[in-house]
Amino acid sequence: MSSGGYRESPDGDPKKPVFYSDVGAGPLVRPYAMTGGRTRAMATTLDMISVVVASRREVDWAAVQPESASILKLCRRPISVAELAAHMDIPMTVVKVLLSDLVGKGFVLARAPLPAAENPQLNVLQAVLDGIRRL
Amino acid sequence: MASVDSDIPTTERGLPQALKILVAGGFGAGKTTLVGSVSEITPLSTEEIMTEASLGVDDLKGVEAKTTTTVALDFGRITINPELVLYLFGTPGQQRFWFMWDELATGTLGVVVLADTRRLDTCFSAVDFFERRGIPFVVAVNRFEGAADYTRDEVREALDVGSDVPIVPADARQRDSGKEVLLTLVEHVIRRRSPISTG
Predict the structure, then answer these.
(1) Tens digits of per-residue pLDDT, B139-148?
(2) CA pair distance A104, A91, nearest whole angstrom
């Protein structure tokens, strides 16, 4: 997207320019501080119901920032992006950015949701009916 | 204590895939109650930060600056089988969150529009939204104490929805009732996708 830079501070004080690492982010709001101001997950397209799992057990925890470490611990079993965000109490947008870094590094595997809207997958729909009936 | 790790999938093909159903409706219509009655987990809540041009959204005439809004979402989960997980998302009912609905609606199996007969107008915008996008939906009429009973035809007429849209009475607090609503929705989706359907 767009590059960062210094811009006028929101209160108009020219002596206090605000650093924008990504213009799309607007002023650095706190949740995005963990992502270096990035508001969009690069490379990997993650949905709120993408299912993710940690792909390895050995991690150099010292090399991973605390939020990413929490993600790796929470996704030892398959879990959705929305559930991760809820358990971590961090907005989904932020979790997606952190996750996409981990996917890029090969620490996490992600599976996209079923493209339900496009294909008439009657066997899937039948499975959903059966699953709901079993509740 | 030695922990026994489950097999780590080596590719993403080893992971379950997820589907979602949305539960839409006005504030206080019982969306989270319905999600909770059928979910295998206590409904979770998460937040999404939405950055949107606010022009025309909040009726702030002339304001074109981007604004950041935090929208809370409640959701539950139903494990269908080892390969398939269904998520139910309660969507913010207010019309000003339409941009959120767009993102939520992408790839959704279908929608339960939860109607509150005391305030039927609060689900007009949801009905309109999903109708325009051709997303299958059913209308579940949540029973509230003291609310007048309306027939399906009365609700259909008031909401101005087509005769093919199922309208089901519901008690969002009861699991069996919630199941019935979801089954009606999935059957409706199957009917719409069936090649012999005449639409």
Answers:
(1) 999 987 777 7
(2) 20
Q: pTM value?
A: 0.81
Residue in B with minimal Cα distance to A132: B179
A58: left (phi over 0), alpha (psi -120 to 50) or beta: beta
- Side chain identity, residue A13: D
Q: Whose structure tokens read 């992408």?
A: B106
**Interface ipTM:** 0.84
Q: Which residue of B has its CA nearest to A124?
A: B84
CATH 3.40.50.300 fits B16-46+75-193, yes or no: yes
| CATH among 3.30.1740, 3.40.50, 1.10.10, 1.25.40 for A51-111 | 1.10.10
Nearest to B12 among A47, A83, A109 (CB): A109
Nearest to B81 among A53, A112, A131 (CB): A131
